[in-house]
Design brief:
It holds the Pfam family AA_permease_2. Keywords: Cell membrane, Membrane, Transmembrane, Transmembrane helix, Transport. It is found in: Cell membrane. The chain is mainly α. The chain has a single domain, classed as Amino acid/polyamine transporter I, CATH 1.20.1740. The chain contains 17 helices and no strands. Helix 5 crosses helix 6 and helix 6 packs across helix 12. The chain is globular, with a radius of gyration of 22 Å.
């Protein structure tokens, strides 16, 4: 609308920071010790910035609702557009299991029974209860509207700031902890240890911090002077995210004893910092409850978000009428219930994989691989559309000619290939006996998720298209 208020440069930086500010990924960053600085810079420069800049050009040039699916469809055809929307939906199966697993860990601390946080069967049960709970609530109520922004403020921003403040206070008081992940620093610690290839798998988990970076591009049309301000906002946001995450990651690496990091347990560093700084343990229970609220609000947002975009794809004729059903509130009932069933099945990983740490990392990596395929399709589409639609008005454009777009696209493709290769290396925290199973699982999960989309598209029928 002509009179809609434009976002300021600082407004867009704030929105982007809000989207990626989360305490959940801090342990995955911290477990890599000093190497996290290298990993974070690689994730930001090779992964986040290229995707964000390409997405900005695409979203300002092609303003229809649908984002990546629309860009890919216009560039390389409807089939790959469908694959894109399908992958953005199915990655949620793995991502939401990972997010829901933290509910069990946090709940153990809220009720003062912390040993439950490492009990696989307890985590599995809580994933089922929490995800089905928010699913059924969302069928009756608009939970995101009810929770509003306060869910993010209580569950994400306050805990993140508190973690950074406590971590810095601990570091100022104690210096470098000789028992922590930052002890005995050598210059070589800043680079990955190539003699332990399994440690490279953490790069995939760290890259996941920036997964979804294309979403902020939806605001590119609504910012003052996008040609100048959007790249400044994206670069500033990424730099700030790197700084905040590294402060949190380094202080947590300093506080947690070597070999004791619990990836799905964000409460662990709060406990260590509070005990050392003389803060009453009730504070940890309160912080755990706050983060728990944030996680449940995030689960609620994801229950309906991807399914709403998938039902549009279904109504275009890509899926049978069975998938096009809505309840009386217009909620895509088939998608919502189907994703709850599949998420329940994926969560069985918490019973099959030896410990909670390993299951958490394995599922994080699966989600990252599926995102990488989407980003490869976006990179191909960004270049293709320069030639298919050269006269398209692009309020934000990467370079005057096509050279800059080729460079950014190839950089993005390189990061995607590296990420997928690294993701297929069995993580060093997995037992040796599980290594072969890990590779088979990642390959099969990826092939099945892409293959199902291609098979559905191949056999789709004209009669599937919903009549207006």
């Amino acid at each position: 609308m002509a009179n809609s208020k434009k976002l300021t440069l600082f407004g867009l930086i704030g929105i982007t920071m809000a989207f990626f500010g989360t305490v959940r990924s801090v342990p995955t960053l911290a477990i890599t010790g000093w190497t996290q600085i290298f990993y974070m810079l690689v994730a930001a420069v090779l992964f986040a910035l290229p995707i964000a800049l390409m997405s900005a050009e695409l979203s300002t040039g092609f303003q229809e609702e649908g984002g990546p699916q629309v860009w890919v469809k216009k560039a390389i055809g409807e089939k790959w557009g469908f694959v894109t929307s399908w992958l953005l939906w199915v990655q949620m199966f793995f991502g939401m299991v990972m997010v829901a697993s933290t509910v069990g860990v946090l709940f153990g601390y809220v009720i003062n029974v912390p040993h439950l946080s490492s009990n696989n069967f307890f985590i599995f049960a809580v994933i089922l209860i929490s995800y089905w709970g928010v699913t059924l609530l969302n069928l009756k109520f608009d939970m995101v509207k009810i929770a509003g922004n306060w869910g993010s403020i209580i569950g994400v921003y306050i805990p993140f700031v508190v973690l950074v403040v406590l971590g810095l206070a601990y570091m100022f008081k104690n210096g470098i902890n000789p028992a922590g992940y930052l002890a005995n620093f050598k210059a070589g610690d800043l680079l990955p240890n190539l003699s332990d290839l399994g440690s490279l798998a953490y790069l995939s988990g760290i890259i996941f911090i920036f997964a979804g970076v294309e979403i902020s591009s939806v605001h590119a049309n609504n910012i003052e002077n996008p040609k100048r301000n959007y790249p400044i906002a994206v670069i500033a946001s990424v730099i700030l995210l790197v700084i905040f995450n590294l402060i949190a990651g380094l202080t947590v690496a300093n506080g947690v004893p070597m070999g004791k990091m619990e990836l799905s347990n964000i409460t662990q560093p709060y406990m260590i910092f509070c005990a050392d700084l003389g803060i009453p343990s009730i504070f940890v229970n309160i912080i755990s409850a706050m983060i728990l609220i944030g996680v449940l609000v995030q689960l609620s947002a994801w229950v309906l978000g991807p399914s709403k975009s998938m039902i549009k794809v279904a109504e275009d004729g890509n899926l049978p009428p069975f998938f096009q059903k809505r309840n009386s509130k217009g909620i895509p009932i088939t998608f919502v219930l189907l994703q709850a069933i599949v998420i329940s099945l994926v969560s069985v990983m918490y019973i099959v994989v030896p410990d909670v740490n390993s299951a958490f990392l394995v599922i994080t990596i699966t989600t990252t691989i599926l995102y990488c395929i989407v980003y490869a399709l976006i990179a191909i589409s960004a270049v293709r559309l320069r030639y298919k639609a050269p006269d398209m008005n692009r309020p934000f454009r990467l370079g005057k000619g096509n050279g800059m777009m080729w460079f950014v696209s190839l950089l993005s493709m390189l990061s995607v290939v590296i990420t997928i290769i690294v993701s297929l290396i069995p993580p060093s925290i997995l037992p040796a006996s599980f290594s072969t199973g890990y590779v088979i699982y990642q390959v099969v999960a990826t092939v099945v998720m892409v293959g199902v989309a291609l098979i559905i598209y191949k056999f789709k029928k004209p009669s599937w298209k919903k009549s207006d």
